[in-house]
Design goal:
With about 230 residues, the chain is an alpha/beta fold. The protein contains 9 helices and 8 strands. Bound molecules: pyridoxal-5'-phosphate (PLP).
Length: about 230
Amino acid sequence: MIESQALERIAPLRERMARACRRAGREASEVLLIGAAKTVASERLLPFIQSGLHDVGENYVQEGVAKVQRIGRERATWHFIGSLQRNKAREAVTHFDWIHSVDRLPLARSLDEAARAAGKVQRVLLQVNLGEESSKAGCAPHAVLELARACAELENLQIEGLMGLPPYHPDAQMMRPFFKRLRRLRDEVREASGQSTLKHLSMGMTNDFEVALEEGATMVRVGTALFGERVSQK
Ligand SMILES: *Cc1c(COP(=O)(O)O)cnc(C)c1O
């Protein structure tokens, strides 16, 4: 795909994002578009970055690291958005600027240790299992505050917000209550944990990003609407 084609995907998406922000009285500039690039090869991803996609999300450490190395760490901001095993903590910390999927204390501790060894402060989001679905990662909504408090003690992690993946529904309006809930949780946890950096809400994908933006998303993770249907699912 050449750059003009990438731009043809990015521009209308940003326009839809801007309209959703306007409806909610928000500034589009306060929202980050993350291209969820699982299964998208480096050669296909690069024109998007060259066309102004600054943020890339990856679900698998091995696939993501290959793209970071191929494309270049400095050319984008790299987000890890998939579920993460503790034994991949060091690699994730080395290659990713943000990790959206911290959902348990042992993982947080491993990331903190890896960040200390790397001499960095790792930006993380706490992932919440909004629908309490057994098929999905994320900590239970009632356990987020405790996790946030424990993470606040870890000096090399900076908790930047919450991430959520609500139960899928073809009608995005049906997902609105989950987005509202994540926003309320963020406000409560920020207040109760005294973590003033806890301000982001990573929520919304191709099917529902407009509703998520109306409900306060500061980061949307969009795959299909940018890159097209995924050919192979891992
Ligand atoms: C794949 C994926 C997305 C993007 O999904 P689309 O429906 O293709 O936009 C967003 N977030 C996560 C965690 C994903 O795995």
